[in-house]
Amino acid sequence: MAVLLTAALTLSLSVVLTVTSTKEAAASCSANRFNGTWRSSDARLKRIDVWQGEDCHLYARAWSVCKHDSSRICSWGNRRMGDSPEPNFQFVGYNWTNANEVLQLRMQDRSHISVWDSTDYHNGKKVSFTVAMNKSG
Predict the structure, then answer these.
(1) Exposed (0-12), middle (13-18) or buried (19+): which is 115, by Cβ within 10 Å?
(2) Chain centre distance of CA 90
């Protein structure tokens, strides 16, 4: 009985330490200058939301004017950004049914980024453009 009680207490303590360690690890992520909402006047890429996940990686959600309702913007969905050794540069990729699209975010300063959008369509067509974005809020 004493062995079972000791095992149960050890397991409980292990779970508490693991949960605490995970929270401390998330809290130890250094704040990233990309975090926030970035907006542009370009309908093709109206907004990008950037945040740091509990795993310390950056995540993004891009938005553009909706195809069927130009009065609204539609989300492209959440994606984890690619790891980049350069602190002022990040990228995020989207795979569509008809194309692969990559957004390359380059930090200009704390309030401005430029985003190069490169789309490779499966039919061989390639489209790219650059959008200037400002941090809002």
Answers:
(1) buried
(2) 9
